[in-house]
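Teaching assistant's notes for section 4

Start the section by putting this record on the projector. Ask students to predict, before seeing the second block, whether DUF6603 domain-containing protein will look compact or extended. Collect guesses on the board.
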Amino acid sequence: MSTTEDAGPATPTTVELELELRVGGRPLGLRGTLTGGGLTGLAGTLRGEKTDTLGGLLAGLGEAFAGPGAALDALGGGGLAAIHFEAVELAYRSTATPCVVLNTTLGVGVGHTRIVVAKLLPVPGRAEDEGGLVAGFELELEPRPIGDKGLSELIGGIVVERLGVFHASRDCSGLHLEPATAPGAFAPLVERAGEGRSLHAGLNLSGRVLIGGVDLLEGFGHDTGNTLDAQAPAAEPSPAAAPALASPAPEAPLPARGRAFWKRIDKRIGPLSFRRVGLVYESSRLAIALDAGLRIGGLSFELVGFGVDCPIAALLKGPHAAMDGLGVRLEGAMLGLETGAIAISGGLTRAPGETLRLDGSLRVSTPVLSVSAIGSYERIEGAHSFFAFAALHKEIGGPPFFFVTGLCLGIGIHRRLTLPPIEQVHSFPLLRAAAEPDYLGKDADPRRIGALVDTWLAPERDSMWIAGGVRFTSFGIVESVAMLSVAFGNRLEIGVLGLSRLQLPRKAGGEAAMACVEMELRVVIAPDDGLVAVEGRLTENSFVLRRDFRLRGGFAFFAWYAGPHAGDFVVSVGGYHPSFQVPAHYPRPERVEFNCQIGQVTISGQCYFALCPAAIMAGGSLSIVYASGGIRAWLVARADFLMQWKPLHYEAAVAVSLGVQLNIKIWFVRIRLSIELGAAIALYGPPLAGSVRISLYVVSFTVGFGPPKSLPPPMVWESDDPERSFAHSFLGNPDVTRISVVDGLLDTPAAPPGSAPRRPVLQAHRLHLRCQSSVPATELRFDGRELHPRGGGTWPQLGVQPMGLGRFHSRIELTLEALHPDGSVRGDAQAELDLAPLTVSVPSALWSPRPPGIDILSGKALIDGAPVGIELRGRVDPDTRVGPALELETFAYDRVEYPCSDVGALRPATALPGSAARLGDTLMAGVVVERRRAIVDCLNAGRGVRKLSADAELPILAAAPEHVLDVEPLMARIGQDVPRMFAEI
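Reveal the predicted structure now:
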């Protein structure tokens, strides 16, 4: 025991404690420090002998450890005898990061392994600190050079001194995982040299690997900003950092296979370069890998994810099993060549995932042109899925308004092409690849394709796409790139993406540029959704006069011609009226706005316009504010306009505020003087009327003018005044109802000159008629029978809003008469037809039962499920009228000659003029049967042909000849069995 005291009364007393014990015949030394009556440090070491093994230590501890020792030895495959036990060290610290650390040091071969468990203790006085846990292992090796003499002369000696992996439950800094030491008896505890480790929450990699004296892992475990962490998915660049057409691509995170933890090191040792090093866990194998490259002259070669891996199970069985299980891994390779003015670079990498996926890229650059290409291959569900996209950057030529500077082309098989939303068009990878020659970097790194594939070009069975684009300039000042894509297979979608940029002057930089307008465009035609969509947006790179005079905003045109929103449309520039409840399927373009600060003056404003079936909306605002010292002056104006037409009704709100404020400080007294003049105008009509509210500081008053607010006069169904006639304005008289043939119409021969036109002929089993009205109905009837909605219930309630009719009854009744050949009416026509109500979504502004104006701002633009007609389809028995799919072998034929001299000449018979003979009358006629049997007998005499029947099922067909031509034609080889469905006709 030792004590130390200082003469000063404020210095606490420090007491050193030392205790020597033996455990299992091995010495155990404990040393602690008491400061101010509290334990501030404790260290203890249980050291083994040179001949001690891990198995021997467990056996020496007694029978209580015999069972665990045997189980551990069995798990390690009998390897405990080869693992030497060196020491177990315990340490407690109360300073820096309070913790309890337990170290176990084992000797494996020529190295040492330390297994570390550290319990982080809460810091006194910090209620939010709940402590934590750190666990891991570290391998210490003898610093022997690795490799032969030739390699050492080229890059220097390769020495691996230490490698370790630790997991921390939280961030921590100043952590000493090595135990404290005491060089002499009764000497104070001495901390190991160093600042302590800084670990990041999660897995951390540490080590010391020297190549030519340079530590590749320098900085690991000491800087939380650089501590190894899980690979983050590649993120889209923020809109604020949107690149211009010719700006370089930002550095994107590199992908990893499986569960990987990577650290960028970017070190160069002679001709060798090391980009990153990491720890990878994939398919139950643990690997240490790095990206290493070699550059000699103009030739460069890089290995991606090159390293060694070992099964986790082999690591647990001991060093011998681990050495046997070691394997070499490689994720990919990249190659580059620069000779004079020609540069070629590219590579191929394997992407993450259990299935094999290869991503590749290529870039060729010359003084005349550059070509860049990317692609990916993967096998899914037994199909080969791949895509390829290439871009040519070269001045091809053309007229001044369309001078082509590049082309691009792409194709995808079993790939889904996902078009980006309008706000991400400028960062869409395919569009950027077409616009920027160095999009993937000058080394064409294929690892950057991973995010592109996962986000926009994911594998999908039976999905295909093709794309083509062009990059061009207009009059040398507008740079544009546009790409057309067609996706088909599972879904048909046609899209156009574009980006245009105008800068004046064109090559100006910094503050020299006077204006820059950059707009992205997105056009989508989706027949499956019945949608035509056109969107545009000004990017954040747009400005006028000054770079801080920013412009932004968007426009959209959407129209639905099928599906649940059929009949709806919207045109919007900058959004909608503030009180308008935007339907979920409507686009939401950004406000058209500008803002600028010139000295002490701030100017900003915005505007919008929208047109939809409910109304027209428009408005905007302007703000000018001056602030300097204690003086502040402002002018604020705003206007919102809303109009419904036929009958015409509008509302508008305009407000203006003008004010000045003065702040004065006299000694400790603050005085604020302000005056503000405001005016708000509310207008409505027709006729024009409204009110004006004037506010002057503390006095305000309202003045009204015009007649009181009222609803517009209703329209009438028919009127000589087209503006008051509902039918003339909305129904397109006289074609209120129409009957159309959707399918089944055959070509009708032209009638001879001078004769009456021939009636159209319909094919019965493809019959599809549509009977539709422009006026929605509240009741459907067919031949006196009422039709109800498919799912049950009732039809929606309707009105005629422009006419002021809250409710109205409209009936669509269809009558069908089928005639016999003698002209009499058939009574069983409905039995051969399938009926279905025809419903659409109709505008609320026309057919809502509520009073005018209520639905304008509600966002309820359509009334769904309104009946407008009836569809008729011919009912077909699939067992007798639809043939099976034809196999390819059906079209085979036999190269065998069958002489049929006894049959005579076979010529088609010509019916006599006026003959009324039918197939049923001649099919089983004597002369026809005799001639048919002669042909069949001749065929049966041939070799290798199954015996045929002369009549087969012909008597049945002769009995019902009216059904013969209703059957789809069937092809068969001679002797082939007829499908049962046809044999039973």
